[in-house]
Structure prediction request, 221 residues.
Amino acid sequence: MTAVSAPESCIDPFRQQQDRWDIETRQPTLYLLRHCETEWNQARLYQGRSDPPLSASGLLRARNLGEELAPFLARSMKVLSSPLMRARMTATVVASHAAAKVSIDDRLTELSYGLWEGHSQATIKLVWPDLLRRWKQAPDTVVFPGGESLRDLRARVRLFLAEAAEWEAPIFAVTHEGVIRLVMLEAQGLPLSAFRAVKIRPGKLAVFCYHRSGISLLSVQ
Prediction:
């Protein structure tokens, strides 16, 4: 999917009529929310496919988001979630404020870090120093032991994006840092080697717009 600058038909929904959550766009819009915080996030452990729940602060953040997003999600909106608990908990809590139904999409699952999961970077540096160095310098060349590569992640994210482009309703999906980073790369026409240069924190929302030439990143909230 080719990335170009957003055309005029992609109206940033966060700048319309003083309504932060306005979705009156003339093209399909994709909203990707990174799940709220877990205790593993706080401890800076690799999570991947491991399945920790939200922390107390993460659950509070999800409730606050639900209250803020309720008018937005009550409109015609397709709500999706990764199958992992931290994403499902975030999606369920947020959507409950608007009585919105949440559907699971496996393609939104986080990148599998394999044997790295549950470990801190300090531990990984002791056990896999060369691989960690490559992950920082050339992430597109890494296959995690017992896990995935960025090419694996890109393949399923591209399948999701191609299908989502055909849906008429705007899409609100709760997913993970790896997935959102990958979509940001696709939207900006950047290679996999730039994966570590883009960031999104837990509980933050990235907004994208589909158009004839591809997909554009509108904002990160």
